[in-house]
Amino acid sequence: MKEISFRHDVLPLKNLLYRLALRITQKHEEAEDIVQDTLIKVWNKRDEWEKIESIEAWCLTICRNLALDRIRSRDNQNESLDIIQSDTPDRDGTPYEQMLQRDRIELVRRMVNALPEKQRSCMQLRDFEGKSYKEIASILNISEDQVKVNIFRARQAIKTKYQQIEGYGL
């Protein structure tokens, strides 16, 4: 079994952990706090590292659980969503086309955030983080078949809702 190093195996995961926490909480500051809490929790459990099959999956699970706990503890679930800027600047099109594109991206983000928690987590880990079905099953502690079903249902729900909205008025 491989010797796990905090510096070489855990710290490089901080950006991945941050993206996961940010997708769940939708708040930069909370995501940063959750990553810090995750790293502290992982460090404090260093005596158990040799029992862990995948340190990455274990860290992601801790991060996800901390983020979900943070969401559940919020008093006001109706807080406005922070708009997360697109990673790539708009290069083509008129200002109107750029605005439409930003609106579509924001619409899809809101639809993803409105999904049931399991579907949202499966979809985020698969489509945004590129995790395999096996890794997602391990992180979420569900079967690979459940992962596939949740991803299928999430994609169908978003596709249907998007088509309804885009087709409105036609």
How does this structure look, described?
The protein is mainly α. Helices cover 68% and strands 0% of the residues. It starts with 5 loop residues before the first helix and ends with a helix. α2 (14-25) crosses α3 (28-44), α4 (55-73) packs across α7 and α6 packs across α8 (144-166). It is globular.
Write a brief structural summary.
The chain has 170 residues and is an all-alpha fold. The protein has helices at 6-10, 14-25, 28-44, 55-73, 95-114, 117-128, 133-140, 144-166.
Average pLDDT, all residues: 82
What separation lies between the terminal Cα atoms?
A: 61 Å
Number of helices: 8
Total strands = 0
- Main beta sheet strand tally, sense and closure: none
Rg on CA atoms, Å: 18 Å
Structural class: mainly alpha
Low-confidence stretches: 75-90
**SSE arrangement, N to C:** HHHHHHHH
% residues in beta strands = under 5%
Coarse shape: globular
In helices, the fraction of residues equals 55-70%
How is the secondary structure organized here?
Layout (H helix, E strand, L loop, with lengths): L5 H5 L3 H12 L2 H17 L10 H19 L21 H20 L2 H12 L4 H8 L3 H23 L4
Helix pairs in contact: 2-3, 2-4, 3-4, 4-7, 5-8, 6-8, 7-8
Name its key features.
single chain, 170 residues, mainly alpha, 8 helices
